[in-house]
What does this fold into?
Amino acid sequence: MARKVSLGIAIVYLIAALIYGGWELLLIAAIVLIMPVAMIWFGDEIGDYVGGFHRIGKPYITKRSPGSLVSLFGWALLLAPIVIIILRLLR
It folds into this structure.
């Protein structure tokens, strides 16, 4: 269910980008939407990632993240433009 809803919202964003900004904005929107949609769809897998190292040998990510929290942040990123538009209309 979450995948279908997030995909639907992403498609609406892409259609709006194409209508209001043309092909260039469509490409930018598609690139920007990859991360929130991936966080929603693959929250558990992304949350399980541990690794990456600084130059001094300390890891960037030292603990696993809950998949539900990763998905929640994905939803926040995906819905942020809608919230911003609503807040601007209420002004």
Observations:
- The mean pLDDT is 91.
- Residues 2-41 form the longest helix (40 residues).
- The chain has one domain: 2-90.
- The longest strand covers residues 51-53.
